[in-house]
Amino acid sequence: MIDLTQNAPWRELRSTPEDWAALGREELLGMLGHLHVIRAFEETVLQLEGEGLVHGPAHSSIGQEGGAVGVCSVLNASDLITGSHRGHHQFLAKGLRYLERPGADLSSDPLSGEVMNFLHRSLAEIMGLAIGFCKGRGGSMHLRWAEAGAQGTNAIVGGGVPLAAGLAWAKRRQGRGDVVFSFFGDGAANIGAVPEAMNLAALWRLPICFFIENNAYAVSTTLEEATREPRLSSRGPAVGIPSFRVDGMDPVAVRLATEAALKIMRSGEGPTVIEADVYRYFHHSGGLPGSAFGYRPKDEEAAWRRRDPLAHVAAGMIERKWLTEDEDQAIRANAQTAMSHAASRLTEPDGNKRRIVPALWPKPEFRDHGLRGDLSEFAGARFEELETASGPVGEVKFIDSVAAVMTRRMETDERIVILGEDIHRLKGGTNGATKGMFDRFPGRIVPTPISEQGFVGVGGGIAMDGTYRPVVELMYADFALVAADQLFNQIAKARHMFGGDAPMPLVLRSKCAIGTGYGSQHSMDPAGLYAAWPGWRIVAPSTPFDYVGLMNSALRCDDPVLVIEHVGLYNSSGPGPSEDFDYCIPLGKAKVVRPGSRLTVLTYLAMTPLAVKVADEAGLDIEVIDLRSLDRAGLDWETIGASIRKTNNVVVLEQGGQTVSYGAMLTDEIQRRFFDWLDAPVGRIHGGESSPSVSKVLERAAYVGEEEIREGFARALAETGLKLAAE
Question: Does the pLDDT value for residue 268 go beyond 60?
């Protein structure tokens, strides 16, 4: 038997008297001031929560401040942090570090106006008010101030960690030595997104520190009930990441560990892990201790309180004659006075209680503002349609246009990077979409391991940074369910959740593989799934010409855009550009591809040419509209409405199944918008309830083909014919 050793070091770090001496009075005084401000802030939050003035949870970090202050005390303004649902202290520590005055002594100096405004706006955000950093939408769990490098706390346990890895990817490519710290708790260490992000960060040598605040409890579940190895920093060496374990109640020790991690990361050696043992004094949310709920013993709580990080720093300074007890109390009083003032600006007397100043609430009409951008980024764009194209067009292979337009954009826009599985080999991935690009654009074609949640989140973080425009490829649409949190809780919601001002310029390419024999888990039409989540724009091109124009628009857009590609179209040929790959097709513009007067057919992707074929062969008076843009904001109601008012009859045609269906949403909307113009209920042509099977016979029975389209058209025409005859 041979004992194996890990390739990455794993060390425990403790502070010594020499470390305190080297740090000096001024640095320690600054850290102590930040600790007191954060503690006073959190106490004010709990007081307001107890008065019913904080809507939703108030996850206080009282007791855990030492980790955040120890880290942020040595970060630069250009370094970034992300945090967890229990992230007030992280957000405050980064903001205070960003705003601090060198040499400020909070025992005698008042807090600066900038710091007071920061505390005021932070508290307002937690209370859900319009003057908050996210305009009241983020509340306690979603705090973001990009200017200070606080890129967002996150309510999904571990959900922000892949985004942080994406931010670190951008920082590494920028090459300025900046780093990212991603704070999360012991519970998140067991979430799949975290080890996926760790592996990617190690693989790509990203300058990110995975900072684990190990407070030994989830809500009430102990660490020992969650994992056999409670020393969570052990996760780092498993994927080749140097890791440190430290007493998080000692901010000096945390600072030393941070400096050691920064030395590794700033030198280009890749990520680090710091595990800080900390303790939250109160229950998961609110102002009662855990012992009040029976899951923590009172003597345990008392023992941890005796190790309080504020008292620890103050005691060390007093011992060295750098601080008196009166000065420590003056710092605390100063911080409490500042927070009392901040709260008083947000509240007013209401009988024997107080209430939030009514004028500070967001206006109800602000509800959807910033859910997506206003498309002002399209100013100056050149829009084309096939019938009036200014460049030469001809019959081209669909997949060749996919590769051609992406190559053209990579040539002209150095911000574009592509991530996905196997995209660097197999002559351009599994379908040839990235043909010839890996060698031409080194570092910008990024092959990933099989870790959809991880690399989709990395794409989101890259987009959030704002420097680059990531294109993420999901090999099959069904794999979205593996990455669902990143796609729908993170990427789709980010702009709106953080106040409506944060662009998320990400393009997601995903293919619909109905009819290929790949079975139930590789054959989804994703349109209905993504349409259910506001924030995503969705395009579904049916011709090479439209693919080029819609992809150019997707890459220009500051919102996340899903580009659906149909495997059945890849090897088909159709009209497309032979030279001009620079035009756009407007998002939100449908196209009448076959005029008619008796029936309107609304469809997309591979069903568009098939609907035209069936109508042509049968000589039917049917108008076929290729929707092209499928998200709610992109539906072209002007074109759809004009056709329905003409035909008074409409059918929604989709190839996929009845469940997770795009047609269900569209049918409901049509019925409500155009009820008075309809001579018959809105018709639907769709597949069966079950997912496609591998069996060729059963698969064919599950989806829509020419036969089902002919029957559906005949049924819709017969219904209006009977009505007209009766009249």
Answer: yes
What's the rounded Cα separation, in Å, for the pair 312 and 250?
7
Nearest-angstrom CA–CA distance, 191 and 218: 12
Structure tokens at 395: 């019959």
pLDDT tens sequence across 192-214:
999 999 999 999 999 999 999 99
The answer to whether the CB of 686 falls within 8 A of the CB of 658 is yes
- Would you say residue 616 has pLDDT above 70? yes
What pLDDT, in 10s, does the model give residues 659-686?
889 999 999 999 999 999 999 999 999 9
Cβ atoms of 94 and 148 closer than 8 Å = yes
Separation of alpha carbons 393 and 577, rounded Å: 4
Residue 291 CB coordination number (10 Å)? 15
pLDDT at 631 over 70: yes
Element (H or E) spanning 711, and its range?
helix 706-726
Q: How many CA atoms lie within 13 A of 446 on its CB side?
A: 24
- Residue pLDDT, tens place only, 430-454: 888 999 999 999 999 999 999 999 9
Q: Are 250 and 12 in contact (CB under 8 A)?
A: no
3-state secondary structure 131-194: CCCCCCCCCCCCCCEHHHCECCCCCCCCCCHHHHHHHHHHHHHHCCCCCEEEEEECHHHHCCHH
In a 10 Å sphere around its CB, with 0-12 CB exposed, 13-18 middle and 19+ buried, how is residue 388 labelled?
exposed
Nearest Cα to 405, choosing from 575, 508, 606, 555?
Answer: 555
**Backbone phi, then psi, for 292, in 5-degree steps?**
-65, -20
Mean pLDDT of 117-136: 97
Distance CA 458, CA 461 (A): 5
Is the whole model's pTM more than 0.90, yes or no?
Answer: yes
C-alpha distances (whole Å) from 142 to each of 271, 372, 441, 453, 560 are 25, 18, 36, 20, 20
Q: What is the spatial order of strands in the sheet that 683-685 belongs to?
A: 591-594, 622-626, 599-603, 650-653, 683-685
The C-alpha atoms of residue 411 and residue 558 are separated, in whole angstroms, by 20
Closest CA to 463 of 425, 418, 428: 418
Query: How far is residue 338's CA from residue 671's CA, in Å, rounded to a whole number?
Result: 56
Cβ 168 vs Cβ 179: under 8 Å: yes
Query: Is residue 727 very low, low, confident or very high in pLDDT (cuts 50, 70, 90)?
Result: very low
